[in-house]
Design a protein that fits this description.
heterodimer, A: alpha/beta, Dimethylsulfoxide Reductase, domain 2, 4 domains, 25 helices, B: 2 domains, 3-stranded antiparallel beta sheet, 6 helices
Chain lengths: 846, 178
Amino acid sequence: MPGLGARLGRGGATTTLASLADSDCIVIMGSNMAENHPVGFRFVVKARQRGARVIHVDPRFSRTSALADLHVPIRPGSDLVFLGALVNYVLNSERWNQDSFFREYVLHYTNASVIVSPEFRDTEELAGVFSGYDPEQRRYDPTSWRYAGEARPLEGERWPCRPRIEPERDPTLQHPNCAFQVVKRHFARYTPELVEAVCGVPRELFREVAETILANSGRDRTTAFCYAVAWTQHTIGTQIISCCALLQLLLGNIGRPGGGILALRGHATIQGSTDIPTLFDLLPGYLKMPRAVPEHATLADYFATERPATGLWYDMPKFMISLLKAWYGDAATPENDYGYAFLPKIGGDYSFQSILTMMKDGVIKGLFVMGMNPAVGGQNARLARQALANLDWLVVRDVHEIETASFWYDAPEVRNGEVRPQDIKTEVFFLPAAIAAEKDGTFTNTHRLVQWHDKAVEPPGDARSEAHFVYHLGRRLKELYAEDESPAGQQIRALTWDYPTVGPHGEPDLMAVAREISGYRFADGRPVAGFHELADDGSTACGCWIYAGMVTPEGEHLAKRRRGDDRASLDWGFAWPANRRILYNRASADPQGRPWSERKKWIWWDPEQGRWVGYDVPDFPATKPPDYSPPPDARGLAAHPGTAPFVMMLDGLGWLFVPVGLLDGPLPTHYEPWETPVENLLYPAQPRSPVAPVFVRPDNPYHEIGDPRYPCVITTYRLTEHHTAGGMSRWVPWLAELQPAGFVEISPELARELGIANGDWVVVETARGSAEARALVTERVQPLTVAGRTVHVIGMPWHFGFGGLATGGIANELATLVEDPNSLIHEAKSFTCRIRKGRLREGERE
Amino acid sequence: MGIVQRLRHHIGLVPNPVSRATRQAHARIRGADVSVSVCPYCAVGCSQLVYTKDGRIVDIEGNYESPINGGTLCPKGAATWQLVHSPLRELRVKYRAPYSDRWEERPLEWAMERIAQLVKETRDATFVHRDERGLVVNRTLGIAHLGGATLDNEENYLIKKLFTGGLGIVAVENQARI
């Protein structure tokens, strides 16, 4: 999410699945799309039938590879070298330097010409770290990454904001410190030879990929990238994704049909649960959760720190105050900062992995789990279960009795007698949950499309929706605190919670919740038509500004629309923001507003109508002409010229160089995974991410680099027939029959070395734990030659656990707690292990 | 001469070789009500048609009108009917007392009330109004929430609003991080 957000402005897929059919080349990397998003993959097949080239870069040969023109086996954890080498190859290629399209796109739509502060030092100069690094704190001070130039405070604002930045530019792109030259120097050592040494990809194969992408990018052709969590789940995952964004900007592929970056997400509304975040560091609509720092002490302090002078985020007070009005209603007044003090302030990392350790350490005493299965899905799963066993109380809501509910009597450590239920204090509640077909509501799919699902029947037995559970829990708590004058009491009493209930079980009316999310005028309740109608004076309320206007003033919910067509399907559901399907689509036209080519036209400027027209909703002020030049004191979107497609960014430009917003550097840099069999060939002095958050504690041991006890690289993945940690699939007989048990994929070479035959039991071990499974000996995984020696890669699906019908060793038993500094996501796609023939417990049948 | 050859050589009316049972057979969705849903598994967002009879879901199929899936579903999506009717699906509230070795069945209302009481107890014991620097933080670290990516947007909204906005619970997380 921050990988795309930092360079392009929004943490969402820039394109749609259907737009892939318009691609001339599709690179699938960090994803096994054919198996994990099979229906979405039909658009890749469609593109290929129309003549597109499909490339799959992945450690394993899967059905995605089988349907691609080219499969490129790569060592897990080396993706950034591959992408960085593509950047370097492109910048030095004849095509890129001779076709005027690339220069025009990059010059007008990216920050290539901006001069970077003379204080800035690259990793190439400092042996693997950027300027501003504090080795004690393992943190960067990003001051030296800023643009050179002036910062001017704004006058006459109702709410404060950050100073306006006036960067210096060099449109010739020759200045040694312009972003373009900085990028060029940074990637100069990312060569095909380096790719061969680090990734294990032969240089000729790499060249073929690079040439294919180059040939299929330009005025008349577009290349798309698809990725999934195999890019995300690394200590440098954000930078891998951001490197792809950088490459796609250089190639002119963002904002255009058949181009872009498609983030393939794995849960029905994982995008929606980030937009309306059940995440600790965000408020709805990507507003930052306020922190317990003086800079966020009051609402004015918060805006002075977070609100930029230029770009769409200039309107932040409208979004934030409308949110406060939605939550605190009449208790949100101008006098009390619209209830800003009621919002809790965060003081640390409370992300998923920290929650596990906070539970184990006794800080967290009560836990709700709704549709998640950390006893199996949590990294270092044994630690996760120890954490559950240390709670005072635990509420699990699910369809099946998942391992997170049954750990106290059914976990491996209980079965083998190490732990007894009588020793576990946790008070456990299992509450049966409803399924989508049994409730009204919306999911947001992988390309930001919000779709409503109808309630077909009432949920059976005691099964209820989460809306029902949360609404009635809140109602009870409001009663319990009805007379409480303490700050804790005032907080819950201030919350608006008066949804009408419907149906035999007293379900909250989901349309009422939807109207609050979409926004309304506070005085009369009339829905707003879009976020442009939101105000910063308390006269509007809106639960999530990027979803504003989803319920129209006429009362229609746009996510219920079901009229599709062969192009953008603008009348099927609602895509945030404002029903825009391809983001940054101003870039589908040239700086003068004309389509780059007839074949790739999407939106364009119509001088007669004086507005942007085309097949999509313009992701741009509809009537701002291409030749608009902002006056010197302009602010907000008015400060962007008519050529600036990236409306969320300060300067309206895609960022090749990221002066603010990333914690591990302004440019993507290759570091080895936290556990790796090889040294970092680029930066021997800095093998691993210098700022990755680590959990150094006895119950979370790490392997040393090149640890001879753990020589193999392991990567985890999903199967078509199962879903995440299995709660919705391992208990379902049809799916369990199709994919009945866990397994480990190993190459014939490794199998020969270890005397393992196909179907033998094997045990995979790390310093955290062990998992057993049958060996699947297959040429789909290949040993790779990395830094001159053989590295074996093994693959293990992570769905399995001890409950349900389809059982198997828990892959997360092996994984470790370690994070990407930006996304706080763990590293399950590349760590080290050993594998041996045999069973976990001696005496069991081999 | 076998039946196939006889039929092949027959000229004129062929007695219809269809049994009464076959004639009376029909699709199980005939006469069913249909509502539109979205597949609950991955994030492609395939549209589903949910067929119901007498308050019971009899079939779930891909929606042929959807520009995303055009009537198709993958193996998981095609198993949604069985997810609903899963023989192992839990339909009753189960309760495990501290240090107990067994589940007990409890009424839903009892569990809801007990959970509300526990939330209040834990929250009151761990709520922090001002931190050590004197900044107003109005938060509790004593309670956490996990999950959301398989729920509805409206449910995520209610969770975030109540837990964070109303109760000061800050450790609220979902699968976006794993």
